[in-house]
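thoughts on my protein:
***
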Amino acid sequence: MIFATFNEDDLDAAPAHTIAPAALLDGDAPVDSLLQRLRIAGNADARRVAMHGALRDAGFDWLCYTRILRIGEHVSHAMWFDSYSPAGWPDAYQRASFFDIDPRVAFVCRSEWPFAWDLDSLFNRSALNQPGSQERRFVDAALASGSASGVTVGIATANPVERCVVTLSSRHPGQQWLSDTTLGAAYGLAVDLHEFIDAHPQFRLPRLNSDGLSADQQAILQCMAMGMHDSDIAHELSMTRSEVSHHLKQLIQRYHANSKVQLAYIAGALERD
């Protein structure tokens, strides 16, 4: 997995010409919106004041903003904006491969609705009763970081396999405090922060493409998008099975897939794009 973090200071260091001119205008956002406050803030420190105030007013302690490339059920790339995450949480989350077992990620990659959660309800009891299970480690690590409940929002991008996952969390146990108003506020904060960050193209994840592929490799991907197996591909393209296998290994490495099933998913995404 390819993983990186960035923060408010990195946004300040972004060359001005990489930010779309429209993103610098204030008139298209409500005066009291977080997006408008972030746009008129003069520097990273001023944005931190605005963000912490918005989180406090909405009842949250932390915010984690992550852009991911999710191939099937596997996250191959992630870029984490860590200025408002619990200290050490992004690296701990990535090292433990929590991306692949976190139910919040799976949910928001399927739905645009805000997902209200608490740690007692994220996993089934049988997994949590196993001390060494990955689910048990996730819950213990989240509790230690001060995140016991909250709201997670998924935001689609122009990249067909990229998703922005924004989690706002609190030390409060249970979901009783998560009213409809709180969910609405969380959604608004998530979208405003996303629009501000999305204006910096260098913090977007790479778009899947077929640039630089040989004609044979492109043909193999087209066959995979149609659901063809190795032997069928070899017959269709007049190749040997070993030639097809060689190209598949190269394609899996290029797209950071961990199986031919994931590569077929990528082939379909490329075809749709």
In short: The radius of gyration is 21 Å. Strands lie at 2-6, 62-71, 74-81, 115-118, 149-156, 162-170. The chain has a mean pLDDT of 89.
